[in-house]
Every structure is written in structure tokens, then in C-alpha cells.
Design brief:
CHK kinase-like domain-containing protein; three-stranded antiparallel sheet; five-stranded antiparallel sheet; alpha+beta; 422 residues; CHK_kinase-like; Kinase-like_dom_sf
């Protein structure tokens, strides 16, 4: 049975009976109709997704229509193993069913804003059974007026400032919970798992990033005035990226937070006002959530979602917007003046933390930017790609974006060097 048929014939009934419908599903339920439409892969390759339009009747109530997005693992067991989908669905289920409800309950006692407003409704989630039975069911946000941005690579200032303010709110809740309900927060955090592609070894990771970084380093090194000893140091540094990842992902208190982990435009949906200006944002795809430095989310966002021109003109201002959101929301949560928080959460401390972790975003840009910029990504054969070694996959990514992608990745490297982040 294919997945679309399985949704109609099996899953919808289970979701309705056991899902989150505000206890309306405790009595008699009738599924009047159900339509299933596969979602295009676009920038999401870790799971299969389906839009579901279902008409339900609870007890004596009038029929009500629900719009859902159902995420299922890849059907091919080889691809599931390669992507480590058990880990992805475990993490997403954990965050939607435990962490977000815990945060929401925590905030009810202290502030007026809702953390749930940053995410789609989760109707149902299940993991850690059979690998092909994992499922996450979210509300489809399109009928609520949300949509993905039409900007396919880089965001403009208005989208960036909205996203960063919302990220600051999310990070502030982590800090608040660590201060006031640390035991409950860390109990859930301790259950997060780390995804490991294709059981890759440290040497596999080193080879992959040695290849993807070398193109940008060589291009950067051809600039007039670039000290070739710096180029050599860069090559040496990027020859052991497995060690860099361990360093950057090791929690360092007190700034460590629950990071989204893949904080990019393809994992956000925006609602727009009558002037077509973004006015609200929601985050989704919580499969690689990490307990790590806020610089992990910030560096991914800065280097995968902002052009070099926007970073040069506005990154300092945008960073201040993020920091103001963190510290003002945290002050409200803790019920204290902002000044008291400056010792541990000052702008300068956050800026240094970003500098210490900025390489993380750069390393991801070396393969994801070429992928995002190429039309060929829509024609990649997953089965063929996942049968290749990481070294061969690196070669594929490098070729995808051509010289234009190389220039943009080299610009990021130049930004890192200028900031003293390397």
C-alpha cells in the first residue's frame, strides 16, 4: 500500500481517535471525507509530506473541516537508514509533544505571549515504534494565511528582522526555563538524539568538508591583498571539520539554548499584511533541534538566508534586534529589570558567542548554497545520490551552483575572516 492510500485507509482514523482535538474526539467521531495531496519535495528531502483535507463530525456538533500536513519517513528502507529518519522523527515528536507544551504551560504563569504561536498546531505525533510507522501530523498553515516566501535564496530586511525577533523570543524561553524550571527542561533536552548520515565516520566528514570548503578558499585566496599564509591556515583548519563540529556543538553555559537547528527560510512560513509586508512568522521542521549555542541558529540564518550586501549593511542592526528580543522577553519571563541581565546576557557576550560559532553557518553554506541556487536540485535522484560516498556527494554539490555559488560562499568566508571568526 502506498503512503497516500495508507493515510486515507489507516492513518486518518488513528489520528482522529488519538490526536489533539481539544478532547472533542472522546466521543463518537465520523470521518465524512478525506482528500490527500502529496507535497512537492522542494527544499525538504528528509521525509515525505502530504496535505490532507478532512471533514470531521464530533458527536452532535456540525461537521468541521481540518487542514493538515502529514509527514512520513521515506518508503525506501535504505534511504531511511541513510538519513537516520528514526532520529529525525524522534526529535520532532519529542519537541511537539513534550517541549512545546511544557514551554506553553511555563509561560502561562508569567507572560502574555504564547510560544505555541511560533509553531503550527501538532495534531498527532508518533515515533520509536517501527521505523516505517513514524508520523508527525501538523496543521496546514496555508488556510491561516501563511505561506513560504517567494524569495528562493536570500531574504530581505523585513523578513529577516521578523524571523530574528521571533527566534529571540524562542531562545528567551529556553533561558527562562533554565533559570526557573531547569530540571524539567533538561530532562527533555537529554532525550534529543544526534542525526548521523550514512553512519559517516570522522574521516568521511573531514573529506566531505575539505572538498566543499576548498573551492571557496581557493577563490578567496586569488583576491589581491590576501595573505597566502592565511589561505594555508584556512586549508589546515578545514581539513579537520569533524573536530570543529564537536567544538561548536559542545554546550557552553550560560548561553546554550534549545536551537531550532535548521533555522533557514525554507523552514519558515510568513503571513503578510495588506501592504504585502511580512507581519507574522511560524517555524517548522524541528527534526534537528539541538541544545547548543544560539550562534548555531544565528550563523545558519546569516549565511544561508542573507546576501553579502544585506549582511554588510544591516547585520549589526539585525543582531541588535535579535538580542533586544532575547533580553526583553527574558526580563518579562523572570520578572526583573533588563539591567540585571546584562552581566550574563549582554550584547557584547552574544556577539562574541556568534563570532565563536560563525564557522558553523559557513560550513553548511559550502554545500547548501550551491544546492539552493541550482535548478538541477529538482532533478537529483535520491536513490543514486545516497548510494554514493560522502566524497562523491561533495563533488555533486560543488558542481551544482557553479561559479556564482562559489563567489557567494567565498564572500561568507571573507566575512568570517574580517570578523576575526577564524
Amino acid at each position: 500500500m502506498d503512503q497516500a492510500a495508507r493515510i486515507t485507509e489507516e492513518l486518518v482514523s488513528i489520528i482522529v481517535q488519538h490526536g489533539n482535538f481539544n478532547n472533542r474526539n472522546k466521543g463518537r467521531i465520523e470521518i465524512i471525507s478525506c482528500e490527500v495531496t502529496p507535497k512537492k519535495k522542494e527544499d525538504h528531502y528528509m521525509s515525505n509530506a502530504f496535505f490532507v483535507n478532512v471533514l470531521l463530525k464530533f458527536e452532535a456538533d456540525s461537521p468541521e473541516r481540518y487542514y493538515m500536513l502529514i509527514k512520513l519517513p521515506e518508503e525506501d528502507p535504505y534511504i531511511r537508514k541513510y538519513l537516520n529518519t528514526e532520529v529525525l522523527f524522534h526529535n520532532e515528536t519529542l519537541i511537539y509533544t513534550q517541549m512545546i507544551p511544557l514551554m506553553e504551560e511555563f509561560l502561562k504563569k508569567r507572560v502574555s505571549f504564547s510560544i505555541q504561536s511560533l509553531f503550527p498546531t501538532c495534531y498527532y505525533a508518533r515515533s520509536d515504534s517501527a521505523p516505517d510507522e513514524d508520523v508527525v501530523v501538523l496543521g496546514d498553515m496555508k488556510p491561516e494565511g501563511f505561506r513560504t516566501t517567494e524569495m528562493k535564496i536570500f531574504l530581505d530586511y523585513d523578513h529577516c528582522v521578523l524571523a530574528l525577533r521571533a527566534l529571540g523570543r524562542l531562545h528567551a524561553v529556553s533561558y527562562g526555563m533554565k533559570n526557573l524550571e531547569g530540571s524539567a527542561f533538561h530532562t527533555i533536552i537529554s532525550e534529543l538524539r544526534v542525526q548521523k548520515f550514512a553512519n559517516s565516520s570522522e574521516s568521511d566528514i573531514d573529506l566531505f568538508f575539505k572538498k566543499t570548503t576548498s573551492v571557496a578558499v581557493e577563490y578567496f585566496g586569488r583576491d589581491k591583498g590576501v595573505d597566502q599564509t592565511v589561505v594555508k591556515k584556512l586549508k589546515d583548519k578545514f581539513s579537520k571539520c569533524s573536530e570543529l563540529f564537536v567544538q561548536m556543538l559542545t554546550p557552553k553555559e550560560p548561553l546554550t539554548v534549545m536551537c531550532h537547528g535548521d533555522f533557514c527560510r525554507n523552514n519558515m512560513m510568513f503571513r503578510y499584511d495588506e501592504c504585502a509586508k511580512p507581519c507574522e512568522v511560524k517555524f517548522f521542521d524541528l527534526q534537528v533541534v539541538k541544545y547548543a549555542s544560539p550562534g548555531i541558529d544565528l550563523s545558519l540564518f546569516a549565511y544561508l538566508n542573507m546576501s553579502s550586501e544585506l549582511r554588510e549593511q544591516h547585520w549589526d542592526d539585525l543582531f541588535k534586534e535579535y538580542h533586544a528580543s532575547v533580553i526583553n522577553n527574558l526580563a518579562e519571563i523572570l520578572g526583573c529589570p533588563v539591567d540585571i541581565l546584562e552581566e550574563d546576557y549582554s550584547l557584547e557576550i552574544f556577539q562574541k558567542d556568534f563570532s565563536d560559532h560563525a564557522i558553523y553557518g559557513f560550513l553548511h553554506s559550502t554545500f547548501f548554497l550551491p544546492f539552493s541556487m541550482s535548478d538541477a536540485k529538482n532533478h537529483i535522484n535520491l536513490e543514486e545520490t545516497y548510494s554514493e560516498s560522502l566524497g562523491e556527494i561533495a563533488d555533486t554539490y560543488i558542481e551544482l551552483g557553479g561559479e556564482e555559488a562559489t563567489i557567494k560562499v567565498a564572500d561568507i568566508l571573507k566575512d568570517l575572516v574580517n570578523r576575526g571568526a577564524i
